[in-house]
Design goal:
Nuclear Transport Factor 2, Chain: A; five-stranded mixed sheet; three-stranded antiparallel sheet; 10 strands; globular
Amino acid sequence: MNKAASVKARLRNLAEKQGRSYQDLLQIYALERAIYRLSLSPHKDQFTLKGGIFLYALFEGRFPRSTTDIDLLGQRISNEKESLEKAFYDIFSVDTDDGIRFDLGSMNLRTIADAKKYPGTRVTITAYMERTRLSVTVDVGFGDCITPERVQMEFPVLLNDPEPVVFAYSKESVIAEKLEAMASLGFLTSRYKDFYDIFLLSRFFPFNGTTLQAAIRETFRNRGTHIRDIVAFENQFISDSLHKRRWTAFAKKKNTTFDASLEEVIGQIKNFLIPVLEALQRDEIFASQWEPDDLSWK
C-alpha cells in the first residue's frame, strides 16, 4: 500500500473510532500538512497562525466548531502579490513524505478585504491524496497587532507525523479582534463565530485582566475604533428574531458542541468583558484574574 492509501485508511479508521466525519478529517489533514510545510520553509518567521485554525490548535484538535481554512497574519513580508506568490510557491514545494501532494499549477491568489488599510490575500491550491482531491484556502491578513507578542506553538497532528512548530496569535488578541468587530459592525454584524469563540475561550482558559485590557486597547487603537458601548450586548440585539434565527443556523452549520442560546452566550460574554471595558473607559488598570471554573473575575 502506498503512502497516500495508507494515510487515507488510517484517517478512515480514526473517523470511525472518534465518531467524526471522514471527509472532515481529510480536510483537516490537508490543512495540517500545509502548516507543516510552512514550519519547514524559510518563510516560517513571516506568518503567524490566527483565526479558527489557531483555535483548533489551541484546543488541541478538539475545537468545538468546524474550521475549513487557514488564517495567517503576514509580517516581515510585503502584501504585494509577487512576494506572496513566491513565498507560497516555496511553502507548497516543500518535499515531505506524508501522502499529500500540492498541485503548484493550481495555486491562485486574489485580493481580499480591499477596503481595509492593508488589503489581504486569499491563496487557494488543490491538494491530492491519490485520486482524492482537496481544496486548501489560506487567507493572509496584514496590519494587525498582537498583544502580548506572538508565541511558538506545536500544531496538533491527526496521525503520528511530526508536529509543526509555528508562530501563533495570543488568546488575548483573538478576543480583542473579535470584540472590535462587534463594536465596529454594530447591530448589523453577522459574525456569530466571534460570539461563539469568545464564549468558548472564557469557559476554558484563565486570563490576566491587565494583559487582556492591553490587547483590547491596542487592537481598538490600531484599527481606529473607539471603545464604547457594544450594541450586540444590548437587549434589542439579543432579542432580535433575525439574529436568533441566524444564530441557530450558524450553530447547526458549524457543528457546535455547546447547545447555548444567543442570549446565554452574550450573557456570558458580557460577564467576561464588560468589567474590562468599563476599566478602559475610566482609564484604570484592570488587575483581576479570570477564573474559567466559576466564570468570574477574582
